[in-house]
Design a protein that fits this description.
Low-confidence stretches: none
Shape: elongated
Distance between the termini: 43 Å
CATH architecture of the largest domain: 3-Layer(aba) Sandwich
CATH superfamily of the largest domain: Vaccinia Virus protein VP39
Radius of gyration: 20 Å
Helix content: 25-40%
Number of helices: 9
Number of strands: 7
Length: 231
């Protein structure tokens, strides 16, 4: 809770509150809380435990939810389901203009991939796509022993803060996404081969990227420069 440090008037939404381990402490700090829960039984239990004037409850799939409908300066929190963490982060990234920050618990390996630097084993599509929109801070690690029953993996809490004015300008965001996906589709492929349907060797050389390089060696700025040149 100290990592989030919510204030009374903050616009906070919790994803997947479950049995309410985080919901109760949040309601002690904020005047009103929004929660998104896909399980109807858990949602009914939560509605019975908390007054409607304090808790706004949506029974919905967070992967399909319109977070833009919740207003501006949104603070997203939650212990995200590990099996959908990457798609959910990509979904949330669409709302970076209205989100103030995202503070979530994820599998430790996912957090390492999110924050990874180029030319490291963890660096990949998730790293580039999120770092193009957010500043990513690894806050702390949570061991498996903190849960009952204990999972087989460790967890970590991470904060994503929209870059806003510092966000790189993209002429074609869909093209950028296709380039990044192709570059990491088969990590051992050179960019010459991985991007052959999107860029020629001359295109790569024109923006200062060696055709024989691999996607994992390119920075976020490199991907942005290439996508804008091709657009």
């Amino acid at each position: 809770m100290s990592a989030l440090d919510p204030r009374a008037d903050d616009n906070v939404v919790e994803i997947g509150p479950g049995l309410g381990a985080l919901t109760g402490p949040l309601l002690e700090r904020v005047k009103r809380l929004t929660v998104i829960e896909i399980d109807r039984d858990l949602a009914a239990r939560m509605a019975a435990e908390h007054p409607a004037e304090r808790l706004t409850l949506y029974i919905a799939d967070a992967l399909e939810f319109d977070f833009g409908s919740l207003g501006s300066e949104l603070r997203v929190v939650g212990n995200l389901p590990y099996n959908i963490s990457s798609p959910l982060l990509f979904h949330l990234a669409q709302y970076d203009a209205t989100v103030r920050d995202i503070t979530v618990m994820l599998q430790k390996e996912v957090v390492e991939r999110m924050a990874a630097a180029p030319a490291t084993r963890e660096y990949g599509r998730l790293s580039v796509m999120l770092q193009a929109r957010f500043r990513i801070e690894r806050l702390f690690r949570v061991s498996a022993g903190a849960f009952r029953p204990a999972p087989k993996v460790d967890s970590a809490v991470v904060r994503l803060t929209p870059l806003r004015e510092a966000r790189p300008s993209l002429a074609d965001e869909a093209l950028f996404a296709r380039i990044v996906t192709a570059a990491f589709g088969q990590r051992r492929k050179t960019l010459r081969n991985a991007l052959k349907m999107l860029a020629s060797e001359a295109d790569l050389e024109r923006v200062g990227i060696a055709p024989g390089a691999r996607g994992e060696t390119l920075s976020v700025a490199d991907f942005v420069r290439l996508a804008n040149a091709l657009a």
